TrEMBL record:
Record Pfam families: DUF620, SET
Gene3D superfamilies cross-referenced by the UniProt entry: 1.10.220.160, 6.10.140.2220, SET domain
Acidic residues: compositionally biased ranges: 10-19
InterPro entries hit by this protein: DUF620, SET_dom, SET_dom_sf
PANTHER family: GB|AAD30234.1 (PTHR31300:SF3), LIPASE (PTHR31300)
Organism classification: Eukaryota, Viridiplantae, Streptophyta, Embryophyta, Tracheophyta
Superkingdom in the source lineage: Eukaryota
Residue ranges occupied by any SET domain in the UniProt entry: 411-665
Region feature (Disordered): 1-29, 394-413
Name of the featured protein: SET domain-containing protein
Amino acid sequence: MQRLAPLMEEPVDQEEQEEERGGRSTRSKSWKKWIKTQLQLMVFHKKPDMKVLLSVLGCPLFPVPPLSKIYLQQASSSAQYIIQHFAAATGCKKLAGGIKNTFVTGKITMTMVNDLTGSAAVGSASSVAHKGCFVMWQMLPEKWLIELVGGGHKISAGSDGEIAWRYTPWLGDHAAKGAIRPLRRALQGLDPLTISSVFSSAQFVGEKEISGKDCFVLKLSTDQTDLSRRSDSTAEMIKHVAFGYFSQKSGLLVCLEDSSLTRIQIPGTLATYWETSMSSWMEDYRAIEGSEVVIAHSGRTDVLISRFGETLKGGISVTRMEERWTIDDVAFDVPGLSVDCFIPPKEMKMEFQHQDGKRLWSNNPKKMSRIALGRYSRYFSRLKPLPYLNKPSSLSSAASNRDGACQTGPPPIRVGLTESTGRAVFATRRIGSGDLIHTAKPVLACPSLVSLDSVCYLCLKKLMGSAKFYDRGVSYCSQECQENAKVGFYEVETRADWSSFGDYCRTHNFKYPLMVKRLCCMVISGALPADSLDILQPAALSSEMISKIEDGYGLLWNAFRKANFKDDDVAFLTKQWYTAVLARIRINAFRIDLVGGSCGEDLLSLAAASVEGEGAVGHAVYMLPSFYNHDCDPNAHILWLQNADARLMTLRDVEEGEELRICYIDASMGYEARQALLSQGFGFSCNCLRCQSGD
């Protein structure tokens, strides 16, 4: 019991101590006695599935943050009218601005059933019940703290209004990514003010019968910006939506649902998708003792976790969980509860770093680096490359000596993680100045609008004289490229009318939507999967930028629709997919500057020609080259000699273990110009040694 002592702690002040000395019963004294009793009644058998139950059901966050202000006296939308009805039914209007804090105790019973067959029915699968209890403090709405024990484990979570964090014995302290969101448990009919604040901005989507009650349905969705902030290089949050079902008769919240879809992929492996659906039914609405405020004093939460992907040979893996809860005590304005009670653990820091290249979410950088390196630190030769039009590997294992004679062998590099810049490429042996590190074929390449008549429509090689192969308005450098393009994307592309989409790109001088168009055609033709670029880091898109993207998506979708493509063929082409792909292309696409020459040409002259940009013919996206970080004084350079096949070469001697870096921009620019371009184009401020010196 000694290890559970923190759960017994409570804020007290001098007045409360004097009341206890006087023998008067207080609410805080009763809850201490209550939780001691509950702990004594529990049997602490630590089960492996209890960790999963507590991780999922213990203290999840709601998908969206609450509004900074709510106006319960005004109704400018259907959702706000429904919330006014709810506020009146629960009496929470009287709470607005009238209370300082809330204190809650409750009991829980959790069960879990694993269904590995993916069938809809659980059948007679056995389940084990785990009992527990929790204590929750809240200073509405952004500051809260919860401690929960069950099955011999104790977990906790909290928010001080700036950082939301969670502690589990198996993961330790860790911060939540994204916007500061409320505790989901508070929205399960327990905190009417937070429910009103969150759903005031919801969308009314219709009516539905829930548990025999006619309900209004309100929908909330996490915006794309916050989804990106909650994602990282391994896990991408694709969606997170919530629905609130409010009784048309009583106005009370009858059911709360939220569903999230996450894509998990470690480099070198296939993607796995996790879909988590959580539904809570609120029961026993009644007024809190000594108050007119009505809350749900009990309820049930069901969780369905589905895993699917090519890595699961047996099909869909399904896990079902259930929690039943009851509320024992609720109190307002507990003496001694101050903002100091919500201070996160000392080592807990969450920041969105813009350092030295790429951006990285970090709550404890050193700790994260150790964990992430355990997942990712492997040689790139183990990473399975994506196919490009049935050609050989997108990564060539060529190496070269200083004389330019090409030799075969594994590339002298590995991909790892750094504490400041995320993924990075390191040398596994000493590499001499001017040596070829490796070559790489593009996953996706597309000519610019001005180069359509002068370069190969597939590999972007410049067309010389009459050495051209024509096919329905475009040209190729060889019959091989013509055949590969036909199979890879062009047969699909020629079925649609792209005049409106092309005019849109020309008018706005857009280049990346053209790459999305080609990727769509490759996906439909089967040359690439729709998630080919998901491993790459996305750019952060502002709301204004996302709004501008919608026009392009509409034109692209209409082109396929008017061409009578089957629904199954274009099912992947959603607005969210289009936006996510553009965000990745925007920050990972390379401008192709052809400089001609051969393997033995002078490197410095080739680099100078590339920087001049006179040979720019299009853009391409690669796997490994996208992992190289930026430096204004780089030790490596990327070159394109004849076509879009990239060549990574050293600019000076590189020692074993040294990080290889390239320059994303024109390195000849001054300090202020470089910083402005990197900030606007790539979303970070460079802190390399050259920039630190002010050069």
